Amino acid sequence: MTSTARAFWVTAPGRGQIRGVPLPEAAPGDVVVRTQATGISRGTETLVFRGEVPPSQYDAMRAPFQSGTFPAPVEYGYLNVGVVEKGPPDLTGRTVFALVPHRTRYVVPAAAVVPVPDGVPAGRAVLAGAMETAVNALWDAGPLVGDRISVVGAGMVGCCVAYLAGRLPGADVELVDVDPGRAAVAARLGVRCAAPQDATGERDLVVHASASAAGLREALALAGLEATVLELSWYGDRTVDVPLGEAFHSRRLDLRSSQVGLVAPARRARRTTRDRLSLALDLLADPALDVLITGESPFEELPEVMRRLAAGELPAICHRIRYPPDDQEH
Hints:
By secondary structure, this protein is α/β, with parallel strands linked by helices. Helices cover 22% and strands 28% of the residues.
């Protein structure tokens, strides 16, 4: 085992680099994990890559095992799946998920990793963060049997929300996106898809996850009388125009935010963040969710991949990064 690892760092807004980093000695109760795959949380991580985290949110946006500080240099990420090489006997050799950045190996407390269920492939487990966000969103929204639900924005989180909502008995779920290619994704997830101009109105619940002002306007327009619009998008330092005129008041709409940093109030007294993440991993057993992995690249290409994602040159729902089986620092 090497005493160093390799990690992806944002070295300046819009630029990234793979660096050698020291691998600390594992203390009692720690695990040493060799990364198998990471996922790129496209919305948040491209904002970080472009240096668009507002100073007021530096503390709130700090990832659990982040190194460095915003805007740069910073090592950021939180969708990591790997194999425990050293640790407690019940974890050694297990595939685990952790909120760790893009790096080849890492050392963290054993309590910071969650075992991946046997029925969930490591490559699919990188979706755990998005599925956890979707679980929290539906805990926040509290949809009912038979609800008419629209999800605006067919990214990684929006697709996970639509997938879960579509399993609610009697629910009518529509995924709304400007990309016609998302229709095939929606079909695989068991829901229907519509372009904004063709979307169904008078909805009981609208979940917005497009991270765009146009998407938020669409979400408000689709909501029916006294419906809830749940905002999942995070805009970084951008100002967003919200049309609170027109019919917003006469329809008595409820505009709420949901964010994964805290367990939703409806479950906070009885569920921990670890409980929620374990549930999210269990929910990834369905092979249909593989449709959300739309690309894969080797770790060495991550700086260029992140640049292309941030520039909009690489369309993706979830882009997965694969790691060499026995990485050596060089």
